[in-house]
């Protein structure tokens, strides 16, 4: 059941990205070009996403999950160097390429070499960083304390 819901959620997300134009790097770069030929259409996509999230969040926070005993909110709430570095790296990558992780996966499904290579590189970095994070003494200490 979880796999089916995850697949349907991913499909809905991919459809939303495609319909909104978020999979088109030139559209995204046009939105990020605030000093040139700025294209504000993606701002409305983001406003719509925030509105949908806010309404669903309001409903969901008053209920319990269907496939889990409880919600698991994040335990880390502080801003640290890793968060800032990751945010900067994400923003620079998005600004240079016009592609972020969700659209990269959707575009990779087209089979174009550029998008497949981007998605594969992204996957290698994500898996590698997760492996490094779980192998550090800090991570071991955190898991023992928790």
**Percent of sequence in beta strands:** under 5%
Q: How many helices?
A: 7
Shape annotation: globular
Oligomer type: single chain
Question: Characteristics of this structure?
Answer:
146 residues; single chain; mainly alpha
Short description:
The protein is an all-alpha fold.
List the helices and strands and how they pair.
Blueprint: H1 2-20, H2 25-32, H3 41-60, H4 81-97, H5 101-108, H6 113-135, H7 137-145
Write structural notes for this entry.
- The protein has 146 residues and is an all-alpha fold.
- The protein has seven helices and no strands.
- Helix 2 packs across helix 4 and helix 5 packs across helix 6.
């Amino acid at each position: 059941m979880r796999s089916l819901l995850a697949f349907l959620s991913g499909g809905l997300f991919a459809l939303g990205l495609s319909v909104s134009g978020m999979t088109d790097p030139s559209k995204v770069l046009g939105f990020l070009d605030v000093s040139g030929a700025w294209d504000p259409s993606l701002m409305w996509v983001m406003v719509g996403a925030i509105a949908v999230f806010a309404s669903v969040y309001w409903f969901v926070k008053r209920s319990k999950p269907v496939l889990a005993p409880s919600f698991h909110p994040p335990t880390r709430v502080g801003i640290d160097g890793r968060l800032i570095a990751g945010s900067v790296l994400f923003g620079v990558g998005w600004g240079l390429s016009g592609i972020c992780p969700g659209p990269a996966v959707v575009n990779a499904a087209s089979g174009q070499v550029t998008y497949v290579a981007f998605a594969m590189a992204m996957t290698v970095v994500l898996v590698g960083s997760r492996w490094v994070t779980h192998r550090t003494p800090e991570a071991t200490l955190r898991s023992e304390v928790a």
